[in-house]
Amino acid sequence: MEMNKLRLTDEMIAAFLEGNATAQETEAILLEARKDSRLREYLSLAAPKERILPMLAQAASGQQDNLCNVRCEQYILQCFGITVSEEALTEEALESDWLKDGGTPLFRMGSLCSLHGLSVARKYHSSLDDIRVALSEGYQVIVAVDGGEIDGDAEAESLEDQFIGKIPDHSLVVLSCEGEVVCYDPFHGDVPQVVPEDKFMDAWNDSDYYMVKINTKDAVAKLYRPAPLDLSDVRLPDSLMELTEAIAENTHEIWSRNRLNEGWSYGTERDDAQLKHPDLLPYSDLTEGEKEYDRATAINAIKLIVKLGYKIEKR
Q1: Which of 38, 85, 87, 256 shows its CA 20 to 30 Å from the CA of 2?
Q2: What's phi and psi for 55, nearest 5 deg?
Q3: How far is Cα 252 from Cα 280, in angstroms, rounded to an integer?
Q4: Parts of the chain belonging to CATH 1.10.490.160
Q5: Which candidate, 139, 156, 134, 138, places its Cα nearest to that of 147?
Q6: Of 3.40.50.150, 1.10.238.10, 1.10.490.160, 2.70.98.90, which CATH number belongs to 238-307?
Q7: Predicted structure pTM score
Q8: Who wins on pLDDT, 219 or 234?
Q9: How far apart are CA 117 and CA 120, in angstroms?
Q10: pLDDT of 252-270, one tens digit each?
Q11: Distance between CA 34 and CA 255 in Å, rounded?
Q12: Which residues pair with 123 in a beta bridge?
């Protein structure tokens, strides 16, 4: 069927908004939206507005296959003098369930390098300055981007972002970012690709500026700086706030059981040599300051679940 002869229907548009349209239907709707301002307005109003971290998105450009991240990690391993074939890395990724039909989930990027002895740190909401600092410290850096916004039709990609959502479907290794961004793109061979900074930032935005930085463990031991996810924008309903106390108490119970199993016992002061700890008490007997530590762990775990797009519902 010719694309320009594909007739749009209400059912097709509904499937598109639910993320269930075929590739042919999606292209037909986006092409029509370019010409029809009323359709653009409708899609804009009907499209979901919630923004969550795309941790489960899969980096795999549809240009060739689902191996872009595998090739990026192979490139980085080679930079550190570790030679492993693409076939071997692919097999390792499949065996560990790090490689899906649609590619590598963002939270699994870097896992192959970790398997081969390198240190891996992942970060959302990064900046070009973060990349520059990492490169200056000897890290190799992989980013997740929308591959179409690097090489594709800019207008079509803009409509995709607006009506379908941001799709980080490709991996790049950033080599430098001084003025222009120079990258290793696995679908362009070993010749470095130069991407204008504004185009790179638009493509990188689709992953919430996700970067994976990789270095030797010896180097990272001197350079490590924790970078937890910023969850300050997550607002929990009262029902979930009440849940935090139950999680906090259970967290303390698990910690206490593990300590007791390791031979620790209660002591008025902590003594690592004698395995004594003043917090080996029921949760209710802890000070408010001690309880607050467990509450913070609980509430940040719940916020992360919400940030990743999951819903917590009571049965």
Answers
A1: 38
A2: -65, -30
A3: 9
A4: 238-307
A5: 156
A6: 1.10.490.160
A7: 0.71
A8: 219
A9: 10
A10: 999 999 999 999 999 999 9
A11: 57
A12: 211
